[in-house]
């Protein structure tokens, strides 16, 4: 652990804090408590994580649990960071830094450090020691009982740009937040939070194992250059199975872009090692919806998984709310990117004031060859929108054993659309219904599928030309297969229809795209159908 000492409100210390952008009045009052100055660099942080992996896990949680349990959802909601104490509020960067308080649902103390220079070279770090004076809270808040130096729960960067556009105080506007375990998220170009990313995923939905949630325990913040749109943050990760060192270079432009450089060290074997994971919520959409399940037409933060594989194929896999937890693997080598997307941007399809139509997508771009592995998609049954039930991640093919280490560089794009869209027409809707034909008896165990595509290649089809439907399935049989323009007057908007007859309850994996004269016109649609007769989702 880094050494800490009580801040002395001397003139030299005040000047040092002012240089880091802490408000002068807070410095002058002597109420900002800082630890002693320690050496820091990204290389030494990596070495620290490597050394920690050689020792048994010790969570080092010395914060009184009985006090944290009293800071429940209601009490935590009344605690707000006082922005008079925000680092960088008057300093060289344009993004003030504020902190989240510990509580019943945020138990692990996180330690925050300010750097006096770039962490890519040897510099100095000083910890901001927790004090309840930093927060506005009721006089009777149980948080007052926490000892000084307890730590924080997480942080966020505020911005004045968004506040100016929305005519709000910047103190109520933030563009990135790290809170809870290794979770973090950012707003996109539609100014809305949605899905989250994670530093790592350990044994998600792995049979016979409990999922592990490693924690970011230390953060280190670089001062930004004047008028910069970029912030750099370093993090130390620790859990029973893994340690890690991270560098986040985060740019606030039209959306948010993060370049991540991380080194991981395994303490013990991991059955399913999820790298660059994203987690989201999918309850239901126009694809399938149980009768009367909710008054809204759709509820989801993301509606599909997009993959650009090493062969150059663009894949769209609509999400499911399955009857039971499922894991799908899309094997690849030389992956170009993947992400969870919210393609449906029509408010009328949601009718909700929480603005699901504005939720950002999250795209992962490897910055080097990740070799052999698979994009894995975990889908968990949910009956409400409060649960994140979707995880997408890269899982290396090689077995993750104790003593293994990994160095990865990748870029995250938080924005409304994929940064590298396919030139082909893309899937815009998937719909299910009873199979058979109108006016005829509906056959049992038959489902009708309608898959819609829209894009330039379909617009360019010669008049009277109908594209070929290329369709495959893992089991079952197809009938009534055809393609036709969607009768809405929009050029290049087509749909493929087919019936699937299948017995039994095992999932069915299907693959479809449209082509003409041997050339693909659309991206590839993949879907997993769960033919459970008693499913509340499928009816």
UniProtKB/TrEMBL annotation:
Q: What is its main location?
A: periplasm
Q: Where in the cell is it found?
A: Periplasm
The record's section on InterPro entries has: Gal_mutarotase_sf_dom (IPR011013), GH-type_carb-bd (IPR014718), Glucan_biosyn_MdoG/MdoD (IPR014438), Glucan_biosyn_MdoG_C (IPR007444), Ig-like_fold (IPR013783), Ig_E-set (IPR014756), TAT_signal (IPR006311)
User: Keywords on this record?
Assistant: Periplasm, Signal
Residues in domain Glucan biosynthesis periplasmic MdoG C-terminal?
A: 40-529
Q: Which Pfam families does the UniProt record give? A: MdoG (PF04349)
Q: Does the keyword Cell membrane apply?
A: no
Q: Which domain of life is it from?
A: Bacteria
In which pathway is this protein known to take part?
A: Glycan metabolism; osmoregulated periplasmic glucan (OPG) biosynthesis
Q: Which residues form the signal peptide?
A: 1-28
The entry assigns this protein to a family as follows: Belongs to the OpgD/OpgG family.
| Record protein name field | Glucan biosynthesis protein
Q: What is the lineage of its organism?
A: Bacteria, Pseudomonadati, Pseudomonadota, Betaproteobacteria, Burkholderiales
């Amino acid at each position: 652990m880094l050494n800490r000492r009580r801040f002395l409100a001397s003139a030299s210390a005040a000047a040092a804090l002012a240089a880091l952008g802490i408000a002068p009045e807070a410095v002058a009052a002597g109420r900002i408590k800082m630890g002693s100055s320690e050496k820091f660099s990204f290389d030494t942080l990596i070495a620290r994580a490597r050394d920690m992996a050689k020792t048994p896990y010790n969570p080092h949680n010395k914060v009184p649990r009985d006090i944290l349990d009293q800071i429940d959802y209601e009490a935590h909601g009344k605690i707000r960071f006082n922005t008079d104490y925000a680092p960088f509020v008057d300093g060289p960067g344009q993004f003030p830094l504020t902190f989240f308080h510990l509580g019943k649902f945020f138990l692990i103390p996180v330690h925050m450090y300010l750097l006096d220079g770039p962490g890519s070279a040897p510099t100095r770090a000083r910890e901001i020691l927790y004090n309840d004076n930093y927060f506005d809270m009721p006089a009777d808040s149980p948080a007052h009982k926490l000892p000084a130096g307890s730590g924080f729960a997480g942080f966020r960067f505020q911005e004045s740009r968004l506040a100016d556009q929305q005519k709000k105080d910047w103190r109520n506007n933030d563009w990135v937040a790290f809170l809870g375990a290794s979770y973090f998220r950012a707003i996109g170009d539609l100014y809305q939070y949605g899905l989250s990313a994670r530093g790592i995923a350990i044994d998600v939905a792995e049979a016979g194992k409990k999922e592990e949630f490693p924690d970011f325990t230390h953060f280190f913040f670089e001062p930004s250059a004047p008028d910069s749109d970029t912030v750099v943050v370093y993090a130390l990760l620790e859990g029973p199975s893994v340690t890690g060192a991270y560098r986040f270079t985060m740019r606030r432009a039209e959306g948010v872009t993060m370049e991540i450089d991380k080194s991981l060290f395994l303490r013990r074997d991991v059955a399913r090692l999820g790298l660059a994971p994203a987690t989201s919520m999918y309850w239901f959409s126009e694809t399938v919806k149980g009768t009367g399940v909710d008054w809204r037409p759709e509820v989801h933060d993301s509606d599909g998984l997009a993959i650009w594989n090493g062969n150059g194929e663009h894949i769209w896999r609509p999400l499911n709310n399955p009857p039971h937890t499922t894991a799908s693997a899309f094997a690849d080598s030389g992956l170009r990117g993947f992400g969870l997307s919210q393609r449906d941007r029509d408010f009328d399809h949601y009718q909700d004031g929480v603005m699901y139509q504005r939720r950002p997508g999250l795209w992962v771009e490897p910055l080097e060859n990740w070799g052999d592995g698979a994009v894995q998609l975990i889908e968990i049954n949910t009956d409400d929108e409060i649960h994140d039930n979707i995880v997408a991640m890269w899982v290396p093919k090689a077995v993750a054993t104790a003593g293994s280490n990994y160095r990865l560089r990748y870029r995250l794009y938080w924005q409304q659309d994929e940064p590298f869209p396919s030139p082909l027409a893309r899937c815009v809707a998937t719909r299910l219904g009873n199979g058979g034909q109108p006016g005829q008896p509906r056959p049992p165990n038959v489902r009708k599928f309608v898959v819609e595509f829209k894009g330039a290649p379909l617009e360019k089809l010669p008049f009277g030309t109908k594209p070929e439907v290329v369709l495959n399935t893992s089991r079952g049989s197809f009938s009534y297969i055809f393609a036709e323009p969607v009768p809405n007057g929009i050029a290049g908007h087509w749909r493929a229809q087919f019936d699937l007859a299948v017995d039994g309850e095992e999932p069915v994996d299907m693959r479809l795209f449209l082509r003409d004269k041997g050339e693909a016109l659309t991206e590839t649609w993949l879907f997993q159908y769960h033919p459970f007769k008693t499913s509340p989702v499928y009816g």
